[in-house]
Amino acid sequence: MVTGRQDPAGEYENLQLTTLQGWRQFVTEMRSVPQLLAGPVWSGLGEEKRAAYDDDRIDHHSRLLVVQTPTIREVINSGRRLIQLNKTARYGRCGLIVSGPARTGKTTALAQLGKTIEVIHRRRYPQSASDVPVVYITLPPAATPKMIAMEFARFFGLPLSRRANITDITEAVCGVCLDTRVTLVQVDELHNLNTATRAGAEASDTCSAPFFLNTWKRAGVVHGEHADLRRAAGVRFRARRHREHPAAHAGRDGAGIPGGAHCVVC
Fold first, then answer.
1. Going from the N-terminus, what domains does the chain have, and what CATH number goes with each?
2. Which of 14, 83, 172, 230 is exposed most, by the fewest CB atoms within 10 A?
3. Are 133 and 117 in contact (CB under 8 A)?
4. Threshold 0.85, pTM exceeds
5. Mean pLDDT value across the chain
């Protein structure tokens, strides 16, 4: 019997990676392949059942699998090495910047790194169900330090009063991160920082300050479009760039498969 999924349990309500529930759903998602019906069986279905069957298959194909490109492998390997180095470093901890043109798979590489780190953590510590090894946020346009702190609080679902200042929010977020053994902090859309303004410059300092590395003693990973990354130049201290070229495979229209992101260890 074929039944359509009308999302009665809110299956698609938690697809945002910037919330803890959505991130965990992304990490633990197990995709099942719908049954492929023979032509006569499909033709014999009623109109509603046939439409439900087609919707299930379209839904399956919309959840595209991620190809392990050289860029993704480099981001994962670099991120894991930095986490190991930062665990024992007393000072001078390093972060990672993933940059490149639009539509080259930066967010995909970032998400795959976070998923890999979380899966490894869950396997090593199966009894630590309350741990949150990975935090993922997206910088809003014209971000300010308080807006960044609020994004972290939003990820954890922390209740905050309207009168809370940035110090109160930061202390609450850092306390939760230490209690939940955060291993990796990921900040997406770094190019939304604009250091031409005072608020943007302060936000850039927040991204590169001990707020990430020294307080949580782990690796921080941020990404932004290559053309606008110069806005956040304050984040790029002690930078070492690793360049990646687009994949050599080309489609029928001659366009190469996206893969031109760069890694910067800073």
1. 70-265 (3.40.50.300)
2. 230
3. yes
4. no
5. 76
